Structures are given as C-alpha cells and as structure tokens.
Amino acid sequence: MTATPTTPAVAARDRVIIFDTTMRDGEQSPGASMSLEEKLELAKILEEMKVDVIEAGFPIASNGDFEAVREIAKIVTESTICGLARAGLGDIDRAAEAIKPAKRGRIHTFISTSPVHMKWKLQMEPEAVLEMVTKSVTHARNLCGDVEWSAEDATRTERDFLRRCVEAAIRAGAQTINIPDTVGYTYPSEYEALFRDLIENVPGADGVIFSTHCHNDLGLAVANSLAGLQGGARQVEAAINGMGERAGNAALEEVVMALKVRGDKLPFGTGIDTTQITRASRYVSAITGFPVQFNKAIVGKNAFAHESGIHQDGMLKNAETYEIMLPADVGQGATSLVMGKHSGRHAFREKLKALGYELGQNALNEAFVRFKDLADKKKHVFDDDLIALVDDALASGSDRIQVKSLKVIAGTEGPQQADLTVTIDGEERSASATGDGPVDAVFNAIHEAVPHEAILRLFQVHAVTEGTDAQAQVSVRLEEDGRIATGQAADTDTLTASAKAYVNALNNLFARKEKSAPEGRIASGF
Fold first, then answer.
1. Which of 110-114, 387-391, 427-431, 479-483 has the lowest mean pLDDT?
2. pLDDT band at residue 398 under the 50/70/90 scheme
3. Could you tell me which of 334, 366, 326 has the C-alpha nearest to residue 350?
4. Is the N or the C terminus of the chain less surrounded, counting Cβ atoms within 10 Å?
5. Class of domain 309-394
C-alpha cells in the first residue's frame, strides 16, 4: 500500500509548470558557482526529471554564463531553455543569441516596480518604468516566441501601478507574467489575494500564465508559492535544495511533493518524475559544496529516518503511521541498512541505485574500490558513508594533482608539521611545512608543492556518520582572480580528507583557469 494519499484527477487547466532556476538564481548563492561541465550535467538531470522550464543562466552577466546557456540549449530537447535579461535591449539581444540553438527557448526579462527599487536602484520615475516594460517586452517578443516578464519586488509594489505594468507587459506580448516576492516579504493569504486581484482586474490576464517566484527570508517561500497557485498562478519558479540569494528560493522538491501528497487540497498536477528528486538534490549539493541539512524536508538524510521506539513500532506495523510518502517516491533509499566488507559488487550497485545514484561502469568500479578500502577501515558502512563516497567522486573535476602520501605531526607542542607527496601529471613532488595547527600545516605543504595564489574562503568539516570511525567530509572553497572553485573529499582520517578536498578544489580551479572564461557576474535582484 502506498503512503501517498490518492489524489483526484487533475484537469488540463490545473497543470502547473515547474520552472527551475537552480543554475541562475541558485548559482547566485555566494560561493555556489558551477562550471560549464557541471551545468551541462545538471541540465541533463533536470530534463530527465521532466522539469518544464530550465533557467540556464544570465547571458549578459559573463561569457561563461552565455556559453553555459548556449551549450545547454544545444543538448536539451524536452525542456524549455530560458535566459534571463534585464530590461535593456543589449541584455535581451544577448539572451536571444544564447537560447538560439534551443528547440524550445524563452527570454525572461524583468524590471523593478516597487517605490524603493525605482527610487534607489533604478533612479527612474514610474512612467519611465512603465514605458520600459512595453519597450523591453516588445523587443523580446520580436526575437523569441516565448517571453516571460517579471515585476521585480512585486509584493512591495503599489497595487495600481503593478496592474498597469502587468497590463503593459501582456499588451506587448508576454505570455508568462511573474510576480516575484523578491525579498521574501509577503505571507500566504496576502500573496494569494494579489494573484486573484491581478487575474480579475487586469485586461488580458485570462490569456496568460501567472507565475510565482518566492524567496525564503521569512521561511515562507514554499507556503507562499502554494498560496499563489490557489490564487490562480500556474507556474512555480523554484530551485533544487532551495538554493538562491540570501535565505534561498522556494525548494522545488518541497513544492512538487506538497502538490503530489496534498492533492485533496491542492488539485494541481505537475509532470515531474519525482523519483529523480534525490539524485538532483545530491548532485547540486556535491557541485556547489552546500550540504543539505539533515532534517531538510524531502531530501534530508533524516527525512525518512525513524529512531524513536514508538515510531519504529508503528513503522513495522504499517509505514503510513509515520510516513506520508514513500522514500521511493522521491528516489530516497532506506537509511538504516548496513553495508560491509563482505558485500559484493552487485549488492553495491543496487544499494547505490536505492540511494539515487546510477553510475557508469568505470565510475562504479572506481567507487567500489573506494568502498572496499573504506569497509576495511570501518566496522559498519552506513548509507551516509556511501553517499559521501560517491559525492566525493561527483565533486571531482580534473585530477591532474593527486595526494599520494601524507604524514602529520600534531599535539600540544608545536609547531605542527606536515610531510606531503603529491603527483602532478604523474610526476611526484614532495614538500614539508609547519603551521598553526595540523590543517594549516597540511595546506601550507600543499602550497609548497603546488605554488598558487588562491585564497582559502571556506574550510568546513562534518562527520558523515556517528562514532569514532566516522568519515569526515570536508568542503574547501578557493578563490583566485574572481574565480571560485569548491572541492570535497571524505575519509576516516580528517587530515587526509582535508588535503584531498583542498587538492580537489585546486584541480577544479586550474581547470576553470585554463578555459579562460571572463567573469564579472551581474547578480539580478530576484
């Protein structure tokens, strides 16, 4: 018996378009920059998940963003590929050029409409903004058949002016009207009423799709998105794991599963293959270095974990006592099964599938070797150990530099010392360095062996599982000349994991450096 309540049939008019902005708004999370290769892989995952619209980037922001949008437009055939543009004609031209190869392309243009934004950010009078709405949407519509227009900071915009702007965008040819809660300011009943007002009172509103785009500054992004649907919106803009500026966006996985589980109160349907959700979540976490909190709804490690004896008793009798959806519904595996050194390759492969990973043969073989090495060190290998092990591999870019050996002298009497040997394109190079603590000594030794100018921006360690033999998962973020690269590694030895994560970040940084894609990102406001 499924744990998901039976939902009523959903009429075609109640189909909700899922618009993913992980690669655009999500990447604007400080330190969450993604490489071209990572974006291409994520685009494939989102397409397999049957996301309707993929906002692939902000083409005018940098050559790297333009290239990412264009390359994604070439390989994705099922989802609409969207490029963001401000109201300037140059922005719109750049977005149109980026999405040109797409089978289905969309230009998403926006301008601020709230008094505070118009006064301080745009330094424009309302009538000038209104004129720009018409001009920008008209220009976009002449270049692309699918145009979306957004009123930045809509929820703090004077209602009459917002109506006028929406009407102007519709008259100019926009087919999707986005009403963003840019700063996470609104609350559900207010947001629902806003959509009802616009749909009922703006001429032509019945012929376009209204969209939500909610930020999570007050923790209401998902609730507001659902309220927007109740008010008449039929597109939701969201990001995997709730990635995004400040406190993030509405979490795509939470919106989709709320619609699936509570169809009795939210009679809307999506085309999302929910069994791909966990896979997408873990990939985004791996490439950005942003860990998913343990108790995160839908995709957190504890989302389907039951420790209480009372809960366990209920689960054993009937899973519906404490689970409103099945782990399989979102591609999650059980979190309590134990793998050990006697487990075979077939069991290992099936276990990874249950956890949401499907690796190619070479990647599977490499992961299995690492698993066996880990099983020799640990009495029990838990699901989270396996997740860390595979994420470690997924996060890796070029492996020109590899840690061959590491010896660290630490203790109460300093200075601490690290003796390190690395291979660079197959050639060994050794270094010895001291530091203010063992990790500092390790990083100094790497710097000696591999001279570079990168600055350490983040060093983060957490234990993957419980116990003194738990794996340490380390995230390192480096920055050089505006380029940011993240590295991850997991090992039962924290210092070894730290060295590998730092080297992983260096490999990723050097790989990006070689591509010589100019940066100079421009962050949009919603």
1. 387-391
2. low
3. 334
4. N
5. mainly alpha
The distance in angstroms from the start CA to the end CA of the chain is 42
Domain boundaries, the chain: 14-288, 309-394, 401-515
Q: Which H or E run contains 18?
A: strand 17-20
**Nearest CA-CA partner of 442 in 491, 482, 483:** 491
Residue pointed to by tokens 């994420």: 391
Query: Tell me, which fold does domain 401-515 have in CATH?
Result: Double Stranded RNA Binding Domain (3.30.160)
The residue written with tokens 């745009």 in the block is: 122
What stretches of 318-357 show up as alpha helix (H) in DSSP? 345-354
Residue 498 CA from chain centroid, whole number: 24
- The pTM of this model reads 0.75
Tell me the mean pLDDT in the region 12-29. Answer: 88
Q: Residue 320 has which token pair?
A: 């519906």
From residue 410, alpha-carbon distances to 171, 435, 456, 491, 494 in Å are 70, 10, 22, 18, 13
Q: How much is the average pLDDT of 412-426? A: 91
Residue linked to tokens 């000594």: 441
Burial class for 365, CB neighbours closer than 10 Å (0-12, 13-18, 19+):
exposed
Chain-centre distance for alpha carbon 226: 20
Side chain identity at residue 476, one-letter code = V
What pLDDT shows up at residue 337?
45
